[in-house]
Design brief:
Number of helices: 14
Oligomer: single chain
Strand order of the largest sheet: 3-4-9-6-8-7
Helix content: 40-55%
Radius of gyration: 36 Å
Number of strands: 12
Length: 421
């Protein structure tokens, strides 16, 4: 006979005293499944909160991506140099000269000088309206691919150098000058503000801007050779330009080249006379604005999580009350207060995590629907970071609002709990 058999030193191991986190997870899911309607109602606040936060953050990222794509389609990766209007400069007080363009040629950019002046046309006899006359080099689409010809062609470099009376129209200018008619091959009759007449043969029409920038409509602009404007405009001065666009060559660092351009103009004319900006700086500003909007919208949507957390705490308190005798029995069989606390905390976290997963799934479905139906949102974005953040926040909500019910369950006296009816 074995002396160790049935001795008090070897008590049988009870199930509650051996409870581990995995078993607590199993029991949490059993509890949720056993009270489906109550669990669903408790989850609803978390589902709505996670859905709103995930959708708001992702929509903000998708809007930023859409605007950035449209901006790149219109302006590409470019640097712009112009007089600093904020410091009171204008095209006449701070022109860009031929020697400035020569200095810029050493940088990894394509140098595209431009001229601007106002011009008028007769919309009907006796009534004149203004549009923009813009001087450019020839073959502009080859220098800057963001300019796309829709009809005809762009005037050549040879035509530009010779100052020939040829023009390319923006989509809007073609509609204004030749409403209901084909513009290519027509003669555009224009007038400088002083009254001098300018007749140009239209050789091409440009595509209108795409995306949201296309929605605003293109500016009515007539593109003509720079030497022609120098020869005919009463205000333009030979060898001076109003504006220069510097499309970056492949691999060029926008910030570094911008600083180099700035140094060239500051060394020649001093600080503050010219403004140097890149499209990437516009995009940086845009990202900052959308980030602030995302944070605001996320914070507003986060209020739903707060309401959902309060609902979870309420349900957990009800659960503790309903299971008082069960808690007393487990404690009587050897479960510690820490194990009871762990069990209810895990149950609260499981509850909110399930709500978080459902919220993310609903948000993913909404984003897919929006991408398929709204042209502005071209890119579907649901980043792993956003999903992780949403689930982490939902788990933290469960942990925070589960602490009180779990502490209340852990503090129950086993004898009093067993007497509870």
């Amino acid at each position: 006979m074995n002396p160790a058999r049935n001795t008090p030193q070897n008590p049988p191991q009870t199930r509650p005293s051996s409870m581990n986190p995995l078993e607590n997870f199993r029991m949490a899911f059993e509890s949720l499944w056993g009270n489906k309607l109550r669990s669903f109602l408790a989850l609803l606040g978390i589902v709505i909160g996670v859905f709103a936060v995930t959708a708001m953050i992702s929509l903000g990222q998708m809007a930023t991506a859409g605007i950035t794509q449209d901006l790149e389609a219109v302006a590409g990766r470019s640097i712009f140099v112009q007089p600093n209007f904020n410091e009171g400069q204008d095209f006449s007080s701070a022109p860009i000269r031929e020697e400035d363009l020569q200095a810029l040629q050493a940088l990894p950019v394509t140098v595209i000088p431009q001229l601007f002046t106002s011009i008028q046309y007769e919309s009907k006899p006796g009534e004149r309206r203004s549009m923009q006359l813009q001087g450019t080099p020839g073959d502009l689409p080859k220098l800057d691919p963001t300019n796309k010809v829709a009809k005809g062609r762009y005037f050549t470099e040879a035509e530009a150098r010779g100052g020939l009376a040829v023009a390319v129209l923006s989509d809007r200018a073609a509609k204004d000058l030749f409403p209901g008619r084909e513009a290519v091959g027509q003669i555009a009759r224009l007038y400088y503000p002083g009254g001098a007449r300018l007749e140009l043969t239209v050789v091409g029409v440009l595509e209108p801007p795409s995306g949201i920038f296309g929605g605003f409509g293109s500016t009515a602009t007539v593109y003509a050779p720079i030497p022609l404007i120098w020869n005919t405009s009463p205000t333009a001065r030979r060898g001076e330009y109003a504006f220069v666009i510097l499309p970056l060559k492949k691999g060029a660092d926008a910030q570094q080249v911008t600083r180099q351009v700035q140094r060239i103009f500051e060394s020649r004319y001093g600080k503050g006379k010219y403004q140097v900006q890149s499209t990437e700086s516009f995009q940086g500003t845009l990202r900052s604005i959308t980030l602030i909007l995302q944070a605001l919208l996320g914070a507003i949507a986060g209020l739903s999580l707060l309401v959902g957390g309060i609902g979870i705490m309420n349900i957990m308190l009800v659960s503790v009350t309903e299971r008082t005798r069960e808690i007393g029995l487990r404690k009587a069989l050897g479960a510690t207060s820490g194990q009871i606390r762990q069990q209810f905390l895990i149950e609260a976290v499981v509850l909110t995590l399930v709500g978080g997963v459902l919220g993310v799934v609903l948000a993913a479905g909404l984003l897919l629907l929006i991408t398929a139906t709204v042209p502005f949102f071209k890119v579907y974005i649901l980043s792993p970071t956003t999903v992780f953040l949403a689930l982490a926040v939902s788990a933290l909500v469960g942990l925070f609002f589960g602490v009180w019910p779990a502490a209340r369950a852990a503090a129950l006296d086993p004898i009093e709990a067993l007497r509870y009816e």
